[in-house]
Amino acid sequence: MSTGARAYMKKMQLSKAFTLMESGPVVLVTTSDGKKDNIMTISWTMVMDFTPMFAITTGPWNYSYAALRKSKECVISIPTFDLLDKVVGVGTCSGADTDKFEKFGLTPVKGKYVRSPLIKECLANIECKVIDIVENHNIVVLEGIVAYIDNSLKEKRTVHAIGDGTFVVDGRKLNRREMMRSKLPEGV
Amino acid sequence: MSTGARAYMKKMQLSKAFTLMESGPVVLVTTSDGKKDNIMTISWTMVMDFTPMFAITTGPWNYSYAALRKSKECVISIPTFDLLDKVVGVGTCSGADTDKFEKFGLTPVKGKYVRSPLIKECLANIECKVIDIVENHNIVVLEGIVAYIDNSLKEKRTVHAIGDGTFVVDGRKLNRREMMRSKLPEGV
């Protein structure tokens, strides 16, 4: 596993990490069961708090779930538009019989606080601890503990799953900061 | 409240309604406390199941929460890009002292199964029942019971909140249906 590669990723102010997730991009979630690393593709996610806290919907139907449950940690990696085919590939095979890092040419990078690897090729990575599992709804509640962003990437557009096999890429940006001033948390 | 306006909205196959939410658009959620209607702007949402089930993060800090909790129902309305200033306006004032339908020129339309109104100007509306409230995480679990879409609208692009007062509009669409075939629920 590469450690030097983390040099590309700059630590991001943790209180701003929710802004990586609020727009609802499709994300990769890495786990480690202590022996091997795995990746799953998830679009059922939600910001729950600015601290940051995130929810993801997953369960025993995902091979990664056992490792997530046991290790109580993971990394949320946020891929850009140009990685879409890898993202779809990761989402349509299983870690049970596939080394997804190898198959899709993704580079695991050692994290600081968790055993699950960051993904070098992604725009951003958030090391997370599992805070709770809401069993009856298959919701895993995560707290982000450190976030990184790779500002050297030219492509910064993320991609959103529609759910029917189509995706939409980030388009035009609009600024409503003045209108929203009263609602923005301090420092954001 | 207008009933005729519902004619613009065509019923959508309920098993496809999750595709309105999976990309993570900012949405309006309407409620009724039996006396008056209200609207809140929410971007902390998640698809939880194809049936469809949705999670939203909200709590007592939102004026709408009391009505949501009491009535156990709401409508998720999905606005398009051209409604952004209304959406931000709705999100930055309170139903405690404002009739938001009146203030922002939005038209309440009588729903079929819930007392909370649909919003005529929105691209889609989903009548929802509150299935559960996960108190310790401020998660409200909703089941969609009927969904409508207004295909007569020219503007169909939704908008995604970044969380820092900026927004991103839907851009280019990409089709990966063939690659994802094995993972798509039947009929989607």
Taken as a percent bin, the fraction of beta residues of chain A is 35-45%
* N to C succession of SSEs of chain A: EEEEEHEHHEEEEEEH
Question: Span between N and C termini of chain A?
Answer: 34 Å
* Annotation field: number of helices of chain A: 4
Computed CA radius of gyration of chain A, to the nearest angstrom: 16 Å
Structural class of chain A, by secondary structure, is mainly beta
Shape of chain A: globular
Low-confidence regions of chain A: none
Largest interface: A-B, 57 and 58 residues
Reported for the largest beta sheet of chain A, the result is: 8 strands, antiparallel
Oligomeric state: homodimer
Average pLDDT value of chain A?
95
Number of strands of chain A: 12
Percent helix of chain A, as a range, is 10-25%
Describe this structure in words.
2 copies of one chain form a homodimer. By secondary structure, chain A is mainly beta. Chain A has helices at residues 64-71, 84-91, 100-103, 177-180; strands spanning 10-12, 27-32, 37-42, 45-49, 53-57, 73-78, 108-109, 118-119, 124-134, 139-149, 159-161, 166-175. In chain A, strands 1, 2, 3, 4, 5, 6, 9 and 10 form an 8-stranded antiparallel beta sheet that branches. Chain A has a two-stranded antiparallel sheet with strand order 7-8. In chain A, a hairpin with an 8-residue loop joins strand 7 and strand 8 (118-119). The longest helix of chain A has 8 residues, at 64-71. At the A-B interface, strand 4, helix 2, strand 11, strand 12 and helix 4 of A face strand 4, strand 5, helix 2, strand 11 and strand 12 of B.
